[in-house]
């Protein structure tokens, strides 16, 4: 059964935080399910999020909700097992909008449209999501939700 794999024991790191203000824009906001909070990166050529899971997982989906105007045109999902080097799982191409983006089929309701991109199933205990070619001139990324779906192994 597919469910959210990010838990309290999942360690996370991000490339940067806007003005180093972790209280208002920190990584914790990626997973808090609050529509009013977000991770806001600082400027740079690319941004990334690394997740270290407490056990091996099988990833089937990654869902991302950007703020329109602060997304990326290209992303890369990489993974590894037991401290091995990261290897590419898939490249993905998000749209510059506010909707949840995943590899799921789009729902029928237009007010909750989800962009689709394929993410092959992968067994990992570490994931890195890299956001390249950002839509913001300064290279900032704003993400309201980041969900990793799949199953524990």
UniProtKB/TrEMBL annotation:
<keyword id="KW-0539">Nucleus</keyword>
<comment type="subunit">
    <text>Interacts with NR2C2/TR4.</text>
</comment>
<dbReference type="InterPro" id="IPR008979">
    <property type="entry name" value="Galactose-bd-like_sf"/>
</dbReference>
<comment type="function">
    <text>May act as a repressor of NR2C2-mediated transactivation by suppressing the binding between NR2C2/TR4 and the TR4-response element in target genes.</text>
</comment>
<keyword id="KW-0675">Receptor</keyword>
<protein>
    <recommendedName>
        <fullName>Nuclear receptor 2C2-associated protein</fullName>
    </recommendedName>
</protein>
<dbReference type="GO" id="GO:0005634">
    <property type="term" value="C:nucleus"/>
</dbReference>
<comment type="similarity">
    <text>Belongs to the NR2C2AP family.</text>
</comment>
């Amino acid at each position: 059964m597919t469910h959210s794999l990010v838990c309290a024991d999942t360690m996370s790191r991000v490339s940067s935080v806007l003005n180093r203000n972790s209280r208002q824009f920190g990584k914790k906001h990626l997973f808090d399910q609050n529509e009013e909070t977000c991770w806001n990166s600082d400027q740079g050529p690319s941004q990334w999020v690394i997740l270290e899971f407490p056990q091996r997982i099988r990833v089937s989906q990654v869902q991302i909700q950007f703020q329109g105007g602060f997304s990326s045109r290209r992303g890369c999902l990489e993974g590894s097992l037991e401290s091995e080097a990261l290897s590419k799982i898939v490249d993905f191409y998000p749209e510059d909008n506010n909707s949840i983006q995943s590899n799921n089929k789009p729902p029928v309701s237009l007010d909750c449209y989800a962009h689709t991109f394929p993410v092959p199933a992968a067994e990992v205990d570490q994931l890195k999501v890299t956001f390249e070619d950002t839509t913001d001139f300064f290279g900032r990324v704003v993400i309201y939700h980041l969900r990793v779906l799949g199953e524990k192994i």
